[in-house]
Design goal:
About 30% of the residues lie in helices and about 30% in strands. The chain has about 375 residues and is α/β, with parallel strands linked by helices. The chain has 2 domains: about 220 residues, Spore Coat Polysaccharide Biosynthesis Protein SpsA, Chain A; about 160 residues, 60s Ribosomal Protein L30, Chain: A, CATH 3.30.1330. The protein has a 7-stranded mixed beta sheet, with helices on both faces. A 5-stranded mixed beta sheet has the order 15-12-18-16-17. Strands 2-3 form a two-stranded antiparallel sheet. Helix 5 crosses helix 6. About 40% of the residues are buried.
């Protein structure tokens, strides 16, 4: 019987924040937000196991976000947060933990002290809620005007985790099924359980808006170690052929590019940029053209290997920026596919990948149509472990 299981509720859609994916899967300092949250509980010595409650449509996003983390299999959530919590608790019934800590997936800055205080309070109380006292003057609004000043004495702002003795909160949630209560403490209070308040923290905020996400980036900026920048440049001349490979995309053309591999000048420049950020040499030192095994090889192998070297240092690629320099072929019709492919190889969201194209106005070897050049910049953050 585990002593304490953390249940991370991450089944919401995050509509107020917007974006292409639910907010718990948005990138925060190079890693999905949910990963930061999960790590906080996995790293705590008093938490036996961690399980997430996710939306049924988010399984692929979830698997990517928590890859490599030792979590219990996720469980599907319900139509409301209350439903999701109940379903998560039901999924833990077979484990029968003594206590459970329920936490919002979009609160990545919960620290070990808050987790510890919440769990410790369960020795003497049926439930405990991390919260902070209200210090601002409160006003009641009426038609856009302040109509009354509310006495703030004894008022606290509830956060998570909210901890409970498992059997008590499971029974309370079963009784409250169908109600619309705002948090698990309200479910416990409805069942007559005594819930203690323990001190939370100002940094333990819930990410709801873009401003919250920007604040989170600032908080992590000083704690994420060193930021490195690498530069890459590559050139390939034209040769007989009917297509060129650029950023992993096959583009029909009246000529090909000469090279030992597939001559993808874009991915070669990016590979050198990534390697340069950690002082790991260049593409030729890892994949020498004299080695026959690389003859005709797809260049995504090279870029993926560079990304693995970054991960091996405990670092992560934050963003890449590539400029292709040529008179032809035209890059614009293939821009979206190139961004998509680079993002796929590096495991980045598309907003962190930039691919641009320019010409040299007819000057130089690219202007004369003799070949294609590419230059790239990679930003890498070293330090931290998410």
């Amino acid at each position: 019987m585990p002593d304490c299981v953390a249940l991370i509720v991450a089944a919401g859609r995050g509509q107020r924040l917007g974006g292409e994916v639910p907010k718990q899967y948005r990138m925060l300092a190079g890693a999905p937000l949910l990963r930061w949250t999960a790590r906080a509980f996995l790293d705590h010595p008093e938490v036996s196991a961690v399980r997430a409650v996710i939306h049924q449509d988010d399984r692929a996003l979830y698997e990517t976000a928590v890859a490599g983390l030792d979590l219990l299999p996720p469980v599907k959530g319900g139509a409301s947060r209350q439903d999701s919590c109940r379903l998560g608790l039901e999924s833990l019934a077979a484990l029968a933990p003594k206590t459970v800590l329920i936490h919002d997936g979009a609160r990545p800055f919960v620290d070990a002290a808050i987790i510890g205080r919440t769990k410790a309070a369960l020795r003497t109380h049926a439930g405990a809620v991390a919260a902070i006292p209200v210090v601002d003057t409160l006003k009641r609004e009426s038609d856009g005007r302040a109509s009354d000043t509310v006495d703030r004495a004894g008022l606290w702002r509830a956060q998570t985790p909210q901890g409970f003795r498992f059997e008590d909160i499971l029974a309370a949630h079963r009784e409250a099924a169908g109600d619309s209560l705002t948090d698990d403490a309200a479910v416990a209070e409805r069942a007559g359980l005594e819930v203690a308040l323990v001190m939370g923290g100002e940094d333990n905020f819930k990410i709801t808006t873009e401003q919250d996400l920007a604040r989170a980036e600032r908080l992590l900026g000083g704690a994420m170690g060193e930021t490195r920048t690498g530069f890459g440049f590559d050139v390939h001349r034209f040769a007989p052929g009917d297509h060129v490979m650029l950023c992993g995309v096959k583009i029909p053309h009246e000529q090909g590019l000469a090279g030992h591999s597939d001559a993808d000048v874009g991915l070669h420049a990016l590979t050198d940029a990534v390697l340069g950020a950690i002082g790991a040499g260049d593409i030729g030192s890892h994949f020498p053209p004299s080695d026959p095994q690389w003859k005709g090889a797809p260049s995504d192998i090279f870029l993926a290997r560079a990304a693995e070297l970054i991960a091996g240092t405990g670092g992560r690629i934050v963003a890449v920026d590539l400029t292709v320099i040529c008179e032809a072929p035209r890059i614009r019709p293939h821009h979206a596919a190139m961004v998509e492919r680079v993002a796929e190889i590096l495991g980045l969201e598309r907003g962190r990948v930039s691919v641009k194209a320019t010409t040299t106005e007819g000057l130089g070897f690219t202007g004369r149509g003799e070949g294609i050049a590419a230059q790239a910049v990679a930003t890498v953050r070293l330090g931290g472990n998410v």
